[in-house]
């Protein structure tokens, strides 16, 4: 069975950035093959990885509401289309979930997706899920047992408060998590005493230990503006070194 790593946090905190750095980490450590799932409706993980997405799961779900090709069940069609939607790269495949469900019931389509994910998961050592603020996609894909949950916050009271709520919500959602941590992203150096106190308060009042602090990075900004893949970042980039140190400890 693959190990599942999910990322969560409010919008704009850098979940996709950390997802891309995590995929770079796993590929460089030989912890492959990996399935990277971009579960954000505003999908842009592919851009940070230098890849192009042509078909999303949202588009496939809509197709499942129409007529099927002759001599093919909906399960078979879903499985075929999901495999076709995968973007193949060195050491990992990428799947984009696309837009959320629109009008009408997608319950049956999501059930077909869950069954397809059961078959697909066996092909990978790790599944990395870059989530929206909520974690509904985990249940749609039948990923209810999470090995590692990384909750991401920015250095703001609202971001850290959202991180705390996510930590508290995983139980009621029926998601089983073996290990979790908080990563605070884009932290100014040095971090203010007020920010550190807020982080400490959150860590001590939940079961969400602190994984680490990542600094704001001019290198990441420059890489994104230039349209270059984060996979090509040089090893000496400070934020990359700090991210890898966090992953070394958390994923041991």
TrEMBL record:
Q: Which InterPro entries match?
A: CobQ/CobB/MinD/ParA_Nub-bd_dom (IPR002586), CooC (IPR014433), P-loop_NTPase (IPR027417), ParA/MinD_ATPase (IPR050625)
Listed GO CC annotations: cytoplasmic side of plasma membrane; cytosol
Q: Name one GO molecular function term.
A: ATP binding
Q: Which residues form the CobQ/CobB/MinD/ParA nucleotide binding domain?
A: 4-225
GO BP: negative regulation of cell division
What's the protein name? Answer: AAA family ATPase
Q: Which organism is it from?
A: Thiovibrio frasassiensis
Taxonomy of the source species: Bacteria, Pseudomonadati, Thermodesulfobacteriota, Desulfobulbia, Desulfobulbales
């Amino acid at each position: 069975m693959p190990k599942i790593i999910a990322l969560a946090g409010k919008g704009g905190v850098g979940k996709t950035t950390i997802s891309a750095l995590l995929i770079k980490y796993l590929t460089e450590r030989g912890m492959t093959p990996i399935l990277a799932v971009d579960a954000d409706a505003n999908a842009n993980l592919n851009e940070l990885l230098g890849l192009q997405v042509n078909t999303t799961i949202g588009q496939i779900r809509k197709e499942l509401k129409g007529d099927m090709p002759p001599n093919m069940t909906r399960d078979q069609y879903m499985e075929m289309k999901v495999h076709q939607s995968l973007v193949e790269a060195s050491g990992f495949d990428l799947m984009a979930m696309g837009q959320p469900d629109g009008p009408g019931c997608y319950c049956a389509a999501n059930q077909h997706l869950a069954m397809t994910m059961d078959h697909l998961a066996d092909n990978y050592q790790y599944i990395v899920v870059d989530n929206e603020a909520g974690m509904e996609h985990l249940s749609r894909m039948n990923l209810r047992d999470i090995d590692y949950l990384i909750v991401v916050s920015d250095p703001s009271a609202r971001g850290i408060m959202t991180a705390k709520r996510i930590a508290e919500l995983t139980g009621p959602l029926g998601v089983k998590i073996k290990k979790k941590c908080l990563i605070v992203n884009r932290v100014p150096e040095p971090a203010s005493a007020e920010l550190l106190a807020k982080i400490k308060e959150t860590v001590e009042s939940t079961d969400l230990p602190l994984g680490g602090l990542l600094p704001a990075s001019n290198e990441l900004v420059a890489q994104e503006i230039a349209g270059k893949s984060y996979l090509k970042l040089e090893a000496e980039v400070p934020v990359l070194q700090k991210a890898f140190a966090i992953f070394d400890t958390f994923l041991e």
